[in-house]
Structures are given as C-alpha cells and as structure tokens.
Amino acid sequence: MPGKRKIAIAGGKPTRGKFLPFHRPWFGAEEERELVATLRSGWVTRGERAEEFEKRFAEYTGAKYAVGLNSCTAALHLSLLSLGIKPGDEVITSPITFASTVNVIEHCGAKPVFADVLPDDLNIDPEQIRKKLSRKTKAILPVHFAGFPCQMDEILSLAKKRGIAVVEDAAHAIETRFQGKKIGVLKSAAACFSFYATKNITTGEGGMLTTNDPKIEEQVRILSLHGISRDAWKRYGLEGYRHWDILMPGYKYNMFDLQAALGLCQMKKIDTFWKRRKQIVDRYNQAFSDEPALKLLSCSPEHKPAYHLYVLVIRTEMLRADRDQIMNAVQAEGIGIGIHFRSVPEHPYYREKYGYRKGALPIAEYVTERVLSIPLFPAMTDREADEVIAAVKKVIGYYRK
Ligand SMILES: Cc1ncc(COP(=O)(O)O)c(C=O)c1O
Asked: Once rounded to an integer, what is the mean pLDDT over residues 295-307?
C-alpha cells in the first residue's frame, strides 16, 4: 500500500545505506593552505589574521566594529556585561533557543524571563515581550531562530520606549536581512554571531560581536582578554615587550589566528554557501508542502533568511507516533537529525530554579515536543536531499493515523 512501506526501524530496508550526517562542513584546499601558512608564520594566537577577519566581518555586516571571540556564547556574555547587567536585573529572551542564550543571563547573576514565540517562525513574539516587561527589565535578547529575523522594528521600538538595550543572538543569522538591512546594523546594542562547526560559515569554534557603540567595543575587547589593557595581545610581537595593566577581572574569550585563517576563507564563500542552502530549502519546501502532518516555518518575503536550519514541526496529533519515535525512525533510515530546540525553561535547572508552570508558554510547549531538524548544508547533493525527503515521507506515511 503506498505510504505504508515498512520503515527501517520496523525491519524494512533503510532509505540510505551510508548514514548522512546532520552536518558536514565545507573546507577546501584554500583553508588547508591558509592553516599551514598560519602555522608557518610563527604566530598562531590572536594577531593580524584575527584583525583582518574582524575587518572583513565588519565590512560584510556594515557594522562599525566587529570583535572576534572564541564563541557566540562569549559574545553574548560580554554584551550583557558591557551593558552592566547584574544581579537583580531581568533579561527577556526566547524559550526556543540554545542553552547559552539563557546561561549567559545567569552568568551575569540576572534573571531570564521568557516570552513565548510566534508559530510561523518560532521567533520571540513582541506582544509577549510587552507583557513580560517589568521595572527590573534591563535588556531584551531576541534570537533569530533558524536564520529567520525577529520582528526587530517592534522589539527595538519597545526597548527604546523603556530605555533598555537589545542584544541580538544572531548565531543562526549571518546572512539574514531584516527589511533589507543586515543583522549587525540594526539599532541594537550588539549582535552576536557563531562560527561553531555546524554554522553557515565555520572556524570550528568561534564567534563575533558587532556593535556601532565604541564604548561597548572597548569594554568587550578588554573583557575578552583577561581585562588587561587594549592591544595587550601585541606583548610578544615584533614591536617588543610593553607593560600591560589589569583594568578589570576579565575572561579568556579572544579569537586566535588559526580560527581566523579559516574564517577568512569561509567569508569568501558565504554567498555560494547561502545560494546552495536556498536551493535545498526550496527543494524541501516543494516536497513537504502537501504533507498535512508537517508544518513548515516561514517568514515574510520582505526579509532574507539565512536558511541556517530546516525545522519541521510535526503535527504528531495526526500520527500514531510521537516526535522521538519519528526522530529514531528517520535516523534508522540513515539520516542524521537535530532538535532545535526543547524549551529552555522546561530544562531541569531552569524549571527547578524558576518553577515552570505548564501552560505558561503554550507555543513553546507545543513545539518542544514536535520540532525535528533535517540536514541542510551546502555540501549536500540533490540526491542526498531527495533521500532525506524520501526518508521523512516514508516515516510519516508509515505512522499516519
Ligand atoms: C541560538 C544559539 N545561540 C548561541 C549559540 C552558541 O554559539 P557558540 O557555540 O558559538 O557559543 C548557539 C549554538 O549553537 C545557538 O544555536
């Protein structure tokens, strides 16, 4: 019977013999050459390549300043610290995000306050933010989920009215444009990008903070290198040793040249990567649009998504299986998957500390049990994309009520 082919987990033949990983980075001869050149240069820590990568990234986004860091998590943490977020303060953010967006609020001793998301793109809902504002709110931390832009006009105007700052979690949003404007030049205090292994461009681990505020740039630079005076990284350089001063107890968060060597090569391919991502997204959208058990995410055509993740929301109420059964069945077909994300306030630490009540964030709760991300990376072939489609359709067909 069509739609009821035996799935691999129930003893059928898997769609793919060889497992397709959720992600495979795209490095070429250029990256290899640049890494070797960096090793041979005798300077592997923060140096000229990191400076150059910052310059290129600032040019790409149009932001005045870009600071290279060892992760987006570091960028988020230092953004909040540079804004003076401290114990007693509240920061409003999205429940549908990665651990670090929320952990950094805790690291500052502040309280994360969650505003529910919108069903179409799973981005924070400005109306829900408005409801969560209090006298203690000091910042809003929207997350451009999967590369879809948040409603930044409304978020920035809310923040302006209250005199509070906005820090953007742009880990998924390097190429994203909101109403034609790149993330990084909107009127937020800072935007934080990730170059983690699975991101749209990667340095293995790494991050970048962009800002137009010279005070934030200065603070972040100093805090990222132990809190010691600006340009202390030059202390072993050709200009000879110079004394440095500890200005504040900072962190060890700086980017180094081996990362930047990769970043500089990856920047050159960013548009090629994005175009390939879009082709795969179009292929998936076309294949899944007539499947009633799948809700596809979308945003208004006035924006440009980065297409970082392809997230399916599985309407499990139409199936005889829950998301985890479907997840296991798709993996048994030979397809790697990801879950982005289970609602952060429902995780043990946050649930126990702040006492999450069921029903408080209904959309986040609904999607927590239904999201499933399928492979989306530029090195994928059309054939691999078609196998992903076939595997998902086979599993959904098998479990249909
Ligand atoms: C939404 C979001 N924010 C922040 C991060 C943290 O990025 P990094 O690993 O560069 O610290 C991630 C990483 O996956 C993420 O998905």
From this structure: 97
